[in-house]
UniProtKB/TrEMBL annotation:
NCBIfam families: TIGR03943 family putative permease subunit. The chain crosses the membrane at residues 36-55, 89-108. This is TIGR03943 family protein. Pfam families: DUF1980_C (PF21537). InterPro entries: DUF1980, DUF1980_C, UPF0703_membrane_permease. Residues 63-82 are annotated as: Disordered. Keywords: Membrane, Transmembrane, Transmembrane helix. Residues 146-246 form the DUF1980 domain. The keyword Nucleus does not apply.
């Protein structure tokens, strides 16, 4: 590609990054904490595209001035050689950028979750929880406290957890969030098995707010034998998909 085409592609890429970073679109790809770097990258690419185009035109203007009156019989041939057509197939590089804006992929869901083992990790410690009132916990936070802290601060408390529904081969229901280290490419599931008053009809990938209590009952993930705690459900209700579908609390 010539410099003008390169500038155009760089500008489009920078604009796409700025668009994704200024909306919730970027949350489909990277963790929320990377937003400043995404916006900075977009701005740098746009600046580089403008600078490349400016230097290219400046060089062309100087070249025209230096070569004024120096054409010979081969001028037309030289001009044709200097302005040959680049392969149009190179513009296919723009298609992924358009796809990024126009066709945002859905967040990873139950299909990926049930084909990967739970990624639950033991935290270095757990923050103190409020002494009264219902506890709103993330899937990874509840699972970590239930397994590694043995439910020390969870016993006898009303707990609310939100995640998407996943069903294993036997139909056992789980509440799941995909946990991120950096981006969606390294997302791994953290799972809670549900027991108690479970809704009679559960649709995989539907988002659910489950209210219940801690139970010491556990099971093992059939994929990697990792520990999966249970939540004893007292009620559940469907909720909308959150703007950030991934869980980052496990590596904070």
């Amino acid at each position: 590609m010539n410099r003008h085409a390169q500038s155009a592609v760089m500008f489009l890429l920078g604009a796409t990054l700025l668009h994704a970073g200024s909306t919730d679109l970027y949350l489909r790809y990277v963790k929320a904490g990377l937003r400043p770097l995404l916006l900075l990258s977009g701005a740098v690419l746009i600046a580089a595209a403008v600078a490349t185009l400016w230097y290219e035109r400046r060089g062309a203007d100087h070249g025209d001035h230096d070569d004024h009156g120096a054409h010979d019989d081969h001028g037309d041939h030289d001009d044709h050689a200097d302005h040959h057509r680049e392969p149009r197939v190179s513009w296919l590089l723009v298609l992924p950028l358009l796809a990024l804006v126009l066709v945002a992929p859905p967040a990873l869901g139950s299909y990926s979750a049930m084909r990967s083992g739970t990624a639950l990790q033991q935290a270095y410690g757990y923050d103190d929880l409020p002494a009264t009132g219902p506890l709103r916990l993330g899937v990874a936070d509840y699972a970590g406290r239930a397994v590694y802290d043995h439910g020390r601060e969870l016993r006898g408390r009303e707990i609310k957890v939100t995640g998407f529904v996943a069903l294993d081969a036997s139909g056992r229901p789980y509440l799941v969030r995909m946990a991120l280290n950096c981006c969606a490419a390294d997302a791994q599931p953290v799972k809670i098995a549900l027991t108690g008053k479970i809704p009679p009809v559960l649709r995989p990938d539907a988002w659910l707010e489950a209210t219940g209590t801690y139970t010491p009952e556990r099971t093992k993930d059939p994929v990697n034998n990792g520990p999966i705690p249970y939540l004893k459900v007292t009620s559940a209700r469907p909720v909308a998909t959150p703007s950030d579908p991934y869980d980052e609390t496990w590596n904070n």
